Amino acid sequence: MQRLNLLRTSMPKRIAVYPGSFDPITFGHLDIINRGLRIFDEVIIAVAENPTKNALFTVEERVELIREVLEDNFGATVEIFGGLLIDFVLARGATVIIRGLRAVTDFEFEFQIAQMNRAISQDVETLLMMTSVPFSYLSSSIVKEVSSLNGPVNGLVPPLVKKSLDGKFNR
Ligand code: ADP
User: Which of 27, 43, 102, 106 best tests ligand 1's pocket when mutated (most atoms within 8 Å of CB)?
Assistant: First the structure.
């Protein structure tokens, strides 16, 4: 037992980075984060600045929403990132990038990014996690579209995110 504890404390922390736009965070993202936390000691949610993408929420708003939704979810941290993802991952001492896979349509894109990141660094692995069935059709884009038309988004995003969406669409 003592030996096991000794081994545990001397083992390096397993850190993964979960990058994305999170515009805004959905229950689909949260599912991946919670499942990631079962595998890793720390999951860093890296919110992309992406100035080229037309985001509804500013990067600061997206980070704040994630922080509030996660509350004190032990092991999950949130950061803004810009530039090359691999540089960010290596700078944080992480060894894994987590991405989520929904439909087959996600596969080609994710495959391409994973191969590119592997070509840049062989020290970082990409872990593709299958979506959970209830969230397989869920994306931030669809949430924004439905919310903009005043449709129901309960069950797709946490209440706090729904409130922020209402604010964005002047309700
Ligand atoms: P990006 O613009 O980088 O695709 P997103 O915020 O849309 O950022 O998504 C971040 C990651 O989360 C991606 O890997 C995406 O496939 C995954 N993801 C998004 N929604 C879901 C979901 N409902 N189930 C599983 N994975 C998801």
Answer: 102
62 is catalytic: no
> Tens digit of pLDDT per residue, the chain (171 long)?
556 666 666 678 999 999 999 999 999 999 999 999 999 999 999 999 977 778 999 999 999 999 999 987 789 999 999 999 999 999 999 999 999 999 888 999 999 999 999 999 999 999 999 999 999 999 999 999 999 999 999 999 999 999 999 999 987
Instruction: Name the 3-class secondary structure at 111.
Output: helix
Query: Quick check: is 3 catalytic?
Result: no
Q: Is the pTM of this model over 0.90?
A: yes
Rounded Cα distance, 12 and 2, in Å? 18
Task: Note whether 117 and 84 are within 8 A (CB).
Answer: no
102 is catalytic: yes
Residue (of 100, 42, 48) closest to 76 by Cα position? 42
Q: How many CB atoms lie within 10 A of CB 13?
A: 10
Q: Residue 33: is it exposed, middle or buried by C-beta count within 10 angstroms (0-12/13-18/19+)?
A: buried
